[in-house]
Each structure stands twice: as structure tokens, then as C-alpha cells.
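Re: folding output
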Amino acid sequence: MKQEIIERFIRYVRVDTQSDDNSQTVPSTPGQLELGRLLAEELAAIGLSDVTMDANGYVMATLPANTDKNVPVIGFLAHLDTSPAMTGRNVNPQIHHDYDGKPIVLNERLGVVLSPEQFPELSSYKGHTLITTDGTTLLGADDKAGIAEIMTAMAYLRSRPEIRHGTIRVAFTPDEEIGRGPAHFDVQAFGAAYAYTVDGGPLGGLEYESFNAAIAKLTFQGTSTHPGTAKGKMVNACKLAMEFHGQLPELESPEYTEGYEGFYHLVAMGGDVERAASEYIIRDFVHDNFEARKRTFKAIAERMRQKYGDNRINLEMRDQYYNMLAKIEPVREIVDIACEAMENVGIKPHIQPIRGGTDGSQLSYMGLPTPNLFTGGENYHGKFEYISADNMEKAVRVIVEIARLFEEKAI
């Protein structure tokens, strides 16, 4: 099974599916359609039915039930796109069999080394088959590992009819990384009572609390003049952007926060004297704190308008998703089944809040409660991303066991 997973995963990561928040198309990039078509063909080839891919790139399929019991329809989802944080073009995965625990030179020319000294968790993977980048791109385990694991689990169940299960729905969705994944997802057509995203991190991860999330985009209008005669005339847009940022709490940013702590994160900034722009994400687990953080942005913008004039600063802000906890708690049994499935295959569940979001964050509010399962990946969204193929195999076994348990517990 492990080699099957590796081959699928490598095939998927070679397709550039990086999403683009500035695009107005659905999906935001054409590579997601390319991967979607590949997956639709593969789903049909392994024997799933009702395989569809719509114009927006949403792929769905069904593994029919092989039991007479009244089993709730469950779904498994993963997303097609990779993060805009680093290029996903020309991904060249490197396979390291029987990892020896030493630093891995990802790119000798660029001096890029994946080291246990910098990433201590790497030491726990001694003896595993690791898949890494070549030091020039992200890997795309987020979330092509989830895709490979779902696909392999469906092929496994299809080839082993002795494992009883109810109807299983599969979906691969676009643009999760830019918060648009469920925007055109047809929950009714999907037809599941419950679902799981396979979009988590290290082994054993099970998540059903997520951030409340918003994105904020600011533009600053300056006035450019010759610096030699600028006194009383020049307004430097870059300095306006810096002044705005300087009014945010310095220690409430990702590099200083953990656990249930929220943050403001400056993800992009650029410009010149005449015009500058900044983009932030705002995150908090507690709804009231989340609203307070958004009010802080508005208050800073208003103070600066009063100081410099209304035309100097423009703030656009929109919510992206909300904490799924409120929608999962009433159906806690889906979390219990996932925990039991992990324990049955020898994995200790590690329940923690997602310091991020998944499609499940939005889907849960659309009537489809959707906690998140691990994939086995580490260091997402950058050149130090890697994944254990051994733990990918374990993720497949968890998916299979969840399907089996739903059938076993049904009447």
C-alpha cells in the first residue's frame, strides 16, 4: 500500500495548483481544473460511481454501500489547491527511504538543509520513508496527501468487499487555501450526513475547533513630490502603511502566539511614495475576541483618516470562516468514532484546536458537520515541508476503519 500512496502523491504534486486570492475566476487557477480532471478519471478507474466534476472544479464520487444496514452517508474531502505562500510550480519531490535521523540536504547549491536542530520533530521519523521538497518549492502535502489517502482508501475498500460499509461520498474541492473552498459546494448534492476533511498535520491529529477568520486589505494613498522640495507637501504612502502596522499589538502575531491565542498577521506589503498596500489575516478562537480584533482595525483606520484625511486610507475586510466547534458538539459521536478508529489501528488520537481553518470550518455552518483528520505532513506552506509515507499509510487505515465503524454501529 505504501508504494501505491507514494506514486499517487507524487503524480498529484507535479500538477501546479497554487491558488490565487487576487483571481476572480472559479477555481482561481487553471491547474486545479487539470488536477480535478485527473482525479475524476482515476475515481472512475477504481470503480466509484456518480463521478462528476462541475465547471467550478468540484469533483464528487460515490462508493456504494455493501451492507443492508441503515448506515448514515459519510463523506471524505480534501482540497486541490496549494498555498499561495510559496510557489507550487515544478515541484520535484525527493524520496528518502529509511531516514537515518541526520540533516537532509534539500538543495546543495542553495544551501537549503532540513535539520533536526531547526525542526526537532524530524528526529521522531527515523526509519520512515520521508518525502521532501528539493528546496525550491513547497511540497503540496497540504492537501495532496489527503487526496492520495482518500483515493487509496477508496481503492482498498473497493477491492475488499468483506469490509462492510455504508455509502461513502468523496469530494475534492478548489481554493481552500484562500478561504473559498465551500463557496460553490453543493451540500445537498453531496448528500452526506457527516464528513471528514483529511487536511491535518502530524500522525494522530483530530481537530474540530478552528479559528474565526477574516482578511483585511488596506490601500494607502500618498502624495509624491521631489524630495528636495517635499517639506509640507509629501505624504509617503509606505510610511502610512508602517504607521498603521505600528499601532497593532506587537506580541499578537503568529510568531508570538500558540494554543488558543489569536493574532494579527501581516501577510503582504508593498508600494512606493504614491501608493502602498497591506494585507492581513485576523484570527481568534473566541467569537467576541474575533469581533474585537476587527473593531481594532476599523478604529486604527478611522484615527488615521482623521489625521491624514478620508482619501488617504481605504480598508476592506471580510470574514472567511468561523470556529466549527459549535456545529460539531451536537454530533460529538463523529469525533468519538474517529478516535476509536485511530485507537483500533494503533494510533493515539491527538485532539487540538486548528490554528488555521479547513473547508470543514465553513461546511459545518452549511449543515455538514466536518471535523479534520491528520495526513501525516509537517511544515506546510514552505520549502521545509515534508511527509512520512508510513504515516500516510496509517491515515488510509484510519479512513477505512471509520467507514467500517459507522457500519458496525448502525442498526
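--- second protein (sequence, then structure) ---
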Amino acid sequence: MACTSANEQLFDHLVRCETRLYNAVGERLKADHGIVASQFEFLRYLGRHPRSRVADIATTFAVGIGATSKGIDRLEARRWVRRVPNPEDRRSSLIELTPAGRDLVAAAEQTFREQLETLLAPAITDDQARTLMPVLAALRHALEQRNIGLPTG
């Protein structure tokens, strides 16, 4: 059955666009830097939020703690991040980029920006993007405020 309501159509467009964009960006990051999109997102987050906890990363990306911890383990194995003791809570660690991780993020961010320009520019003008951003930001904020979409397990 076809989507009929505005909300159904909006959901369909958002999900399909997100999937296609995420896949295309991920393919380019993998080809150019040997990382997948989720790794890039974690690394980019840590570049902007140094010394974060696994729980902080999990909450930001609405991903389970276990999956986030495994993702960080993989980044640590590649020596792109390191865990350091959390001086405020001895039960947890803080995650930070290594010099190699910082170099990777810098290079991958350039690729990311170029790929977004390639993907979005033919379809959306800068003015349209600026109009759309507050609407999507309000939707995201409303979902985050009510803890909607967080993993339950």
C-alpha cells in the first residue's frame, strides 16, 4: 500500500534519503580511507568532543552501549583512539584520538565534505538546505528530548 499521509510520505523520504546518503558517503570513505561511515562518525565525534565516555558516544548516536564499545575496540585496535582513566569515575574510561586518529579524521573530513557536495548540490541549493535545517533540527530535538529511538537492550 502506498504512503498516503504527509507524515508517512515524510518518513519514507527521510529514511530513503538517509540510507542512500549514508551508503554513498560510507563507500567513498571506505575506498579513500579504509573506514566505514560509523567509524568516521565516532572518530569525528571524538575530534569534536575529546575525552568522551562510551556512554556519551552511544547516547549521541542512539546506539547500544555494547555496540558502541565494540566499535571503539575496533578503532583502538587500529590505534586511532586510546582509552585513558576517567579521573571522575574509576569504573569508566575516557576515549581520545591518537595522533594517527587525528590525521585520519582530518583527511576523511575533507573527503566527507567533497562527497556531500557531490551528492547534495545537484538536488538542493544552499538556500533550500538552510530552510530545511531548522525543521529537521526541531524534529531531532523533539525526539531527543523524549528519548525516542534509543536502544532498549
